[in-house]
């Protein structure tokens, strides 16, 4: 399938901006400007996210004495219900992205009222390189467990989730629960992985095929990785989950990939690796779409159906 017509128009505008010098890819920008530009894309990709959602700021302590900000999203009508939780980690290559850039994603995940969504503001590189984000993710699980009662959350029905690098963090939590259960406070019952980074250590065909022109560029990926992880760290399964020994079955995984994405091949490889290790895997490929499609609710009509399918699976799996 060719690029989705709704997305195609946006990509053409992006390419025009690049050719005329009005915009540049993230890897060509100073860090602060790149972060700002990424934040501003949210207002373009999904300017009118669902409004009937209550958002509560929470504090999530970490092992080194810092406190992460988090946001708890739930449908307004479910404010007093004890709900299962989607622990959601935003994308952005561990370098850009924030609670604000993925606010629309969390609102859409909470809209059905079936789950509360807790989004931690894990710390970013290069200020906080690997493995800080991993530690922050693990500490967020501990904080969720400790605060579940006061937040009206069911800690026994935890779904770990994320997109891009955030999906990698969710995958690491699921691996930890399966292979190193003493290292995580709660065992997830499911994982939602949208276009995850699964192997920083090597280049695959999709990195070359979709290197440029589909929002996420392969050079930008390398720019992210250089900020986050040195060569040795890229071989660590906590940065590259595909390199983990996947002997123990993990929580069932819903893996959603974009057809036009440099990360496509490693996403497919990860789904195959999980399935070979007897993890139940539901794999979907969003034809015609590119990386970051979860944030495109305002420009691609079919994104609503992506959320619907993922949440339907999560409801069935989480019980």
UniProtKB/TrEMBL annotation:
User: What are the residue boundaries of the Alpha/beta hydrolase fold-3 domain, all occurrences included?
Assistant: 86-294
**Which SUPFAM superfamilies does the record match to this protein?**
alpha/beta-Hydrolases (SSF53474)
The active site lies at 164
Protein keywords? Hydrolase
Q: Which GO terms describe its molecular function?
A: hydrolase activity
Tell me any Pfam family this protein matches: Abhydrolase_3
- Top-rank taxon, per record: Bacteria
Q: Which PROSITE patterns match?
A: LIPASE_GDXG_HIS, LIPASE_GDXG_SER
What PANTHER family does the record point to?
Answer: AB HYDROLASE SUPERFAMILY PROTEIN C4A8.06C, ALPHA_BETA HYDROLASE FOLD-3 DOMAIN-CONTAINING PROTEIN-RELATED
Q: Which protein family is it in? A: Belongs to the 'GDXG' lipolytic enzyme family.
Its protein name is Alpha/beta hydrolase
Organism of origin is Pseudomonas cremoris
